[in-house]
Amino acid sequence: MNVHDRYEALKSKVVKRKKEFDAFIGMLEQESSWLSSPASTRFHLNREGGLLEHSVGVAETLLKLREVCAPQLSEESCVIVGLLHDVGKIGMPGKPRYLKNDNEWEIRNRDMTYTINPREVYVNLAARSLYLIAKYIPLSDTEAQAILYHDGQYVEANREVAHREMPLTLLVHFADNWTSCIYEEGRVIREDTDYYERSDTK
């Protein structure tokens, strides 16, 4: 399935909070850069639609992890957290975070296809995600923690939650890393070794 079909399949899993979820998704699709935004300026999926592709991938990976590690977690909770964990990367409705880069040197030498909007009001990305979601969708404290601390110990400020993470927080953190570092980079784990290689080199 293409990413849009996978996206629709994920959205259909939200049932209990469907009305609120649909209102938020509708706003994102109609009033923000959600469907067109890259996932980053240069590091992963720095292309149009990259944020949606990444978000769908994380939600799908999170659902797989849930099935094995924590089946007591609801699919709906995993979809909301996994799909929307990085929604702060849109910036704000009508005020996109990422702009097409017109600096040819940066594009050619740094693969920096996008740049940060210089007029952006700075807010930590995870905090912005939580802020945007919570305006529309009622969240549990567990879901709020998972969204706010999904980057784990890669972010220094997240050390305050170390060893106090809820299972959903740990799972979305791993799903995020696995999706971006393995799936998005095309790495394939070889069966006969601990090493991995890019699939495009086979």
What this model shows, in words?
The protein is mainly α and 202 residues long. It has one domain (3-201): Hypothetical protein af1432. It contains eight helices and six strands. The protein has a two-stranded antiparallel ribbon. The protein has a two-stranded antiparallel ribbon with strand order 3-4. Strand 5 and strand 6 form a beta hairpin. Helix 3 crosses helix 8 (167-183), helix 4 runs parallel beside helix 7 (141-148) and helix 7 (141-148) runs parallel beside helix 8 (167-183). The two termini are 23 Å apart. The mean pLDDT is 92.
SS-based structural class?
A: mainly alpha
**Helix content bin:** 40-55%
Q: What value does the Rg take, in angstroms?
A: 17 Å
CATH secondary-structure class: Mainly Alpha
Distance between the termini: 23 Å
CATH architecture: Orthogonal Bundle
Per DSSP, the total helix count is 8
Q: What oligomeric state best describes the polypeptide chains here?
A: single chain
Question: What's the domain count?
Answer: 1
The whole-number mean of residue pLDDT values reads 92
Features:
single chain, 202 residues, mainly alpha, Hypothetical protein af1432, two-stranded antiparallel ribbon, two-stranded antiparallel sheet, 8% strand, globular
Topology:
Blueprint: H1 3-11, H2 18-31, H3 50-69, H4 75-84, E1 91-92, E2 95-96, E3 98-100, H5 104-110, E4 114-116, H6 125-134, H7 141-148, H8 167-183, E5 187-189, E6 196-198
Antiparallel strand pairs: 1-2, 3-4, 5-6
What is this entry, summarized?
By secondary structure, the chain is mainly alpha-helical.
